[in-house]
Amino acid sequence: MIKIVVIGNGNLATHLCKTFEENEAILLLQNYNRSGKVIPNCKVPVTADIKKVANAEIYILAISDSALYDLSAFKDLNGLIVHTSGATSIDVLKNFTNYGVFYPAQSFKANLPVNFSEIPIVIEANSTLGEQLLFHLANSITKKVYILNSEQRSALHLAAVFANNFSTFMYTQALEVCNEHKIDFSILKPLIFETITKLENELPNKIQTGPAIRNDEKTISKHLKELKNENQKKLYNQITLAIQNYYGKKL
Predict the structure, then answer these.
(1) How far apart are CA 119 and CA 111, in angstroms?
(2) Which among 19, 130, 149, 211 counts the fewest CB atoms within 10 Å?
(3) Could you please report the per-residue DSSP string of 23-49?
(4) In this structure, is the dihedral angle defined by the CA atoms of residues 176, 166, 143 and 28, taken in order, positive or negative?
(5) Please, which residues have CB within 8 angstroms of residue 244's CB and are 6 or more apart in sequence?
(6) Would you give the distance in Å from CA 250 to the centre of its chain?
């Protein structure tokens, strides 16, 4: 069994503790967080005293990216020290002897259930032994394990911002338009789900539809006139131009 200590009590730390606790190949020894807050629906022992952190094979720093730049409190920890950031280089941990990255490529909310078996996990380590240990850990909870270097992982994180964060903001704009005209947003859900389903078998650049790619100037002009919010109007115009430029069309 791999002996683990999870450091942090945020969204990811919460889900990691729950998942590790349920896995027979993993022994979750402890959770450390500065407030001593108990992880909901998890029996893992919690400590707020850094001097009482258990001896483990892997310490997972499920903390904010900014907190990774001051890890002096953890200088006496032995074992493999890993962070969970998509955007932060492995080199932020170079003051430790054995270090690496354990990055689940997913968005997490503590109160929303997740299935780790469907989540890709990206790993990196400063040694072959560390990489093997992280691969074993990741492979215990998912079969989607990828070994990427820091530059590749940062690019993946950037792509994830486009795929997840930006697309969610677009859904928010759709919600605002629906609310303004007293339309139930749920009418759009089958369309959203259908688009996502298509990505199971096609690349996104093969399924683009809409007035922008059709160069439908009449519809585009009508939409721009209908939008009362200037920020939404600018956004609509910018996205339309971006689509047309990408596919070689012009207004």
Answers:
(1) 17
(2) 149
(3) -TTEEEEEEE-TT-PPPTT----EES-
(4) negative
(5) 212, 213, 215, 250, 251
(6) 35
User: CA 175, CA 110: separation in Å to the nearest integer?
Assistant: 24
- Tell me, what's the pLDDT at 249? 59
The average pLDDT across 119-138 equals 98
* Residue type at position 102: F
Question: Do 8 and 16 meet the contact criterion of CB atoms below 8 Å apart?
Answer: no
Q: Cβ(33)–Cβ(9) under 8 Å?
A: yes
- Contact partners, residue 13, CB within 8 Å, separation at least 6: 6, 7, 31, 33, 39, 60, 62, 63
Handedness of CA 94, 49, 22, 62 (dihedral sign): negative
> Residues 107, 15, 132, 23: what is their CA dihedral angle, to the nearest 10 degrees?
-140
Tell me the average pLDDT across 155-172. Answer: 96
The token pair that represents 206 in the structure block: 């093969």
Whole-model pTM? 0.89
Q: Is the pLDDT of residue 230 over 90?
A: yes
Q: What is the 3-state secondary structure (H, E, C) of 97-114?
A: CCEEEEEECCCCCCCCCC
Q: Which token pair is 72? A: 């002096």
